Amino acid sequence: MREGLFEELMAKEEDLHEDLIDHIDHDSPMGEFLRHPLIVTPYIPQMNAYYNYQYLGKRKEADKVLKKKDWSQWIWFHERPFRLDAFLSVCSGLPAKTYWELLREIWVDTEGPSVNQDIWLELFNRPYPKRRKMMTGKERRALTQASESGELNIYRGFVTGVETEENYYEEDIDREGGISWTLDYNKAEWFARRFLVEGNGVGMVAEAICKPKDVIGYFESRGEKEIVVDPSKIRILRSQEILTDQDQTNATQKLMDEGKWV
Predict the structure, then answer these.
(1) Which residues contact 180 (CB under 8 A, 6 or more apart)?
(2) What pLDDT digit, counting tens, does each position of 175-206 carry?
(3) CA atoms within a 13 Å half-sphere pointing along the CA-CB vector of 95
């Protein structure tokens, strides 16, 4: 964007592009939102000219890469909540190697995978060749090493007992048996805290066991040691409540008061 263009667009009165009008979410708890496959942003009517400029420029570039059949770039022109839909619209005609590599890219970046859990499971279980391309060589070796004991201990952080759900992704609520797990307990605890709002809900960590042969994929690219597995193929051992930051503060203070804190 050239210098001064943003100011020019902000000063310009313009109707919202017809492609965007039906994509205004008037019921968002965070105020009106524009939710289009190519643009997701808080909606302020005075910024229509800016939204139109963004949309038309992005649509033009997306059309260019679509004509070149550059599927990765085309999908990534879509905003995160719409990338799975974009993939679904083209995946059946993709070469097997491209299918698995793109599926990995979209999965690793996605938020709220359990919202579309059945769709993800169907995509992951398609009988296409070259499935190994979904993981890197390093990930395949790490999974083999972790599987040497014959079973995998896996963990999942989630929130339960939520009175109002507006602060949470749907998959984080009462989802003891989701599709996404981790080999790292601390990472599961981090996810349990991620959307925990004081006074609304309880952070939990579930522990389960699965067989290595049932693991759909193992991904390390976000440092999560993530295990993807069909929930019907796991055995949940327990779920336990995590300590909140306030709980930890209180426990520390108690130790200090008792002279036991070193």
Answers:
(1) 113, 114, 156, 171, 226, 227, 228
(2) 778 899 999 999 999 988 886 765 567 889 99
(3) 8
Q: What residues does 241 pair with on adjacent strands?
A: 204
187 φ/ψ sector (left φ>0, alpha ψ -120 to 50, else beta): alpha
The strand order across the sheet containing 215-219 reads 215-219, 226-229, 180-182, 152-160, 202-210, 234-241
Lateral strand order in the sheet of 24-25: 24-25, 33-36, 39-42
Backbone angles phi, psi at 136, to 5 degrees: -80, 165
Question: In this predicted model, what pLDDT tens digit does every residue of 200-219 receive, in sequence order?
Answer: 678 899 999 999 999 999 99
Residue 258 has pLDDT above 70, yes or no: no
Cα three-residue angle 238-243-249, rounded to 5 degrees: 165
Is residue 79 within 8 A of residue 111, CB to CB? The reply is no
- What's the half-sphere exposure (Cβ side, CA atoms, 13 Å) at 90? 20
Residue 121: φ, ψ to 5°: -60, -40
Domain boundaries, the chain: 5-124, 135-248
**pTM of the full structure:** 0.85
* 51 within 8 A of 41, measured Cβ to Cβ: yes
